[in-house]
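Subject: Sanity check before I submit

Could someone independently write out the structure tokens for this chain? I want to compare against mine line by line before I put it in a report. The sequence has 453 residues.
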Amino acid sequence: MRRTQRTMTLGAGMLASALVLGACSSGAVSSGDGSGAAGGNVTLNLATVNNGQMKDMEKLKTEYEKANPGTTVNFQVMEEGDLRSAVTADVASGAGQYDIVTIGAYETPQWGKNQWLVDLTPELAKDAAYDVEDILPPVRDAISFEGKQFAVPFYGESSILMYNKELLDKAGVTLGANPTWQEVADAAKKVKTGDTAGICMRGKPGWGDLFAPLTTVVQTFGGNWYDSDWKATVNTPEWKEAVTFYKTMLDESGQKDPVSYSFNECLTALKEGKAAMWADASVAASMLEASDSPVKGKMGYAHMPVNKTKESGWLWSWNLAVPASTKNKDAAIKFVKWATSKEYHQLVGKQIGWSNVPPGARSSTYEIPEYKEAAAAYAPITLDVMTAVNPKQPGVNPQPWVGIQYVSIPEFQDVGNQCAQLIADYIANRTSVDDALGKCQSLAEAAGAKQKG
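---
Independent answer below. Compare away.
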């Protein structure tokens, strides 16, 4: 499932158990070295999420199977929560049920560090036709550990500001390509009417819901989860300023009952003209510009708003990886390379449609004439943002992990979800900002202490 609806429903307890299993089995897991069963036939089991891009891959797998006689690729398509549960348990324990797995930018470096995944670096480097350097650098950084690449991106995204040009023009409001958050908040107040929210923003609890955009707001306001020594820095003036700003903007200009809104709700509001602006995942632009969208051709796009930083977009990717437990390593790597290649992007465009080409993974995709025409409204801004963000230091100060709207430690799922509920309570006027941040600080401190060794 795309990052925009990520809920990270796998509990911290399950992940912790998986980590223990992985630690117990790491020395015994075999990475395999063959191409499959006797006679040259091989069946690859691929676990993936049930979104459109992956369903397109499943449709096109027959093309791969025709070109590789004897190879069969079985897709096991699941809801995101089920996928995370099944894949984590299998990969961490070394059970070997899956030959290829779909995982996010959050998991990849952690699992690479744990030696749960095959290091793809050598295979990618020696294949000039694959052109690993064509993969967008920020995406490669996010899915690498100590310079080694343990997955390849199937598609990636950042976040952008989307706005209805007709509604803004009617209110006499203009926005540049690189607005500040204050400019956006001021514009939202001017555009808001009795029937239309000036801006729609996520408020639904969850680290993949509310905290997806809110963490980027915190980072551009100068805050972050931890400093370079893993000291929690949640209960700080920077966090308070950012969270208060977010709530005030929603109170003054946002949708009613914001804590019930996440990606889908804001997308619907924008399509129906019930909201004028929305800062969220760049993949939403393709839906706003779809042939059946009421606002197709009416939308404008800009970089994610900033405060103290030059950029504030997030970075996420869905990636294909090969578990170390596979018995079909060579065949699995071969399919993974095909499904993330330049040739695959051409195949999608020609057989399914150019607007369906996986975005945010390869630079060369944005040079394909047919894709540039189909995605003209949003492709340039998406590429600009994705190449400009810095997952190593997205905020004002250095951080000891790679990642923008998440912290790449196992404990973050639970910490993020609990803190998101606290902030949602503040947005809904059920608690104070000081109480919410104070409790979140304690949660973050406990998780940070485990990283200090």
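---
OP: Matches mine. For the report I'm noting this point. The longest strand covers residues 42-49.
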